[in-house]
Specification:
It is elongated, with a radius of gyration of 24 Å. The protein folds into 2 domains: 94 residues, Structural Genomics Hypothetical 15.5 Kd Protein In mrcA-pckA Intergenic Region, Chain A (Roll), CATH 3.10.290.10; 242 residues, Pseudouridine synthase, CATH 3.30.2350.10. Helix 2 crosses helix 3 and helix 3 packs parallel to helix 5. It is of the alpha+beta class. The chain contains 8 helices and 17 strands. Helix content is 30%, strand content 26%.
């Protein structure tokens, strides 16, 4: 009995750790840190005072900044700091990172910094880098690198500069990311993500020849019922979170297609699971089956060609190409674009060259038949 109990406890701990790891890898969502149902006997009280009395180790200023950014909800609606709570109100405080935090060790890891000012920093994240420390990845993350980078910087008041995450992209996905440099900027930018007002475009190389030139997929995305490490598409709101992806073809290579995906929502693995649902998994995506030869010929030369492409691009073919948003302080519209990384560009070039030669061979075959 005792052994069975230990086994169950171990399984629950592993599941919790896996879920925490997955949260840190892909979601662009706000997380509920605090939730209160106001007592029946509560007199009318400003919400900033109410939260100051109910949350330990929090400053009044931090509460006010969260309210100003629209991250304090009452009965599901954002309220300002002077809102007066009423009996049985449901009060929620949202933040951009999961509630559980851990000590972060600064590490000297090179960063590709695209832009920086006093409020935010734009990073072109390299592949094979986890964004935030979590189970199995306590070091080598983007946050570790930023803590080191900020180590030599100080705020005006002499205090330490820290990174404040706004969103995340998967470990093996490269591309443009925004990180805030203060809590107010984080709250304002996180709200833009939450309201889907930020424009995000990705480039992806997918298996197969897309039937249409463009399209949109709407669904709910939730945990795969057979394998909790994977996400899946559902059309039942109780099984997942609403997700919408717009896509269009950029270039066709016969057996693979280069597409642009624009996100309205930012669910974990959203593009990867949506493309798989359409029957076009991302090239070399080992989680969703793209690391096998799904289209093409049976000839050994073709199989070797694909293997060579896998070697050039040893990850899913996904890059966060551009980001458009409003500056958290000035409201200036900011736009950042990025070139495809060398590994993904090399694989695309190889497929482009293959498609040209394949078309020439097909044309010659038609000539010989005529």
């Amino acid at each position: 009995m005792e052994e069975q109990s230990r086994s169950i406890k171990k399984q629950l701990n592993e599941e919790t750790d896996n879920q925490e790891k997955e949260l840190h890898e892909g979601a662009d969502e706000l997380y509920e840190h605090y939730n209160f149902i106001v007592d029946k006997g509560q007199s009318l009280l400003r919400i900033d005072k109410f939260l100051f009395n109910h949350i330990e180790n929090v400053s009044r200023n931090k509460i006010q900044q969260a309210a100003k950014a629209g991250n304090i909800l009452v009965n599901g609606i954002a309220e300002k700091q002077n809102y007066r709570v009423k009996p049985l109100d449901t009060v929620s405080v949202l933040m951009s990172q999961p509630p559980r935090e851990m000590e972060v060790i600064p590490e000297d890891i090179p960063l590709n910094i695209v832009y920086e000012d006093s409020d935010l920093i734009i990073i072109n994240k390299q592949p094979n880098m986890v964004v935030h420390p979590a189970y199995g990845n306590y070091t080598g993350t983007l946050v570790n690198a930023l803590c080191f980078y900020f180590g030599e910087q100080t705020k005006i008041d002499g205090s330490k500069q820290n990174p404040f995450l706004v969103h995340r992209i998967d470990k093996d996905t490269s591309g443009i990311m925004i990180v805030a440099k203060n809590e107010y900027a984080q709250a304002k930018l996180s709200t833009q993500f939450y309201l889907h007002s930020i424009e995000r475009k990705y480039h992806a190389l997918v298996w197969g020849d897309m039937e249409k030139e463009e399209g949109t997929i709407e669904s709910y995305i939730g945990r795969n019922e057979a394998d909790r490490r994977m996400m899946d598409v559902y059309f039942d709101s109780e099984k997942g979170k609403y997700a919408i992806t717009h896509w269009k073809v950029l270039e066709r290579f016969g057996y693979v297609t280069l597409v642009e995906c624009e996100l309205e929502t930012g669910r974990t693995h959203q593009i990867r699971v949506h493309m798989k649902h359409l029957g076009h998994p991302l090239f070399n995506d080992y989680v969703y089956g793209g690391n096998r030869i799904l289209k093409g010929t049976v000839y050994s030369k073709y199989k070797q060609f694909v293997k060579n492409c896998f070697s050039l691009l040893p990850r899913q073919a996904l890059h966060a190409k551009s980001l458009k948003f409003k500056h958290p302080f000035t409201d200036e519209v900011m736009f950042f674009d990025s070139d495809l990384p060398e590994d993904m560009q090399a694989a695309i070039n190889k497929w482009r060259n293959y498609a040209v030669h394949k078309n020439l061979d097909d044309e010659m075959e038609e000539v010989l038949k005529s």
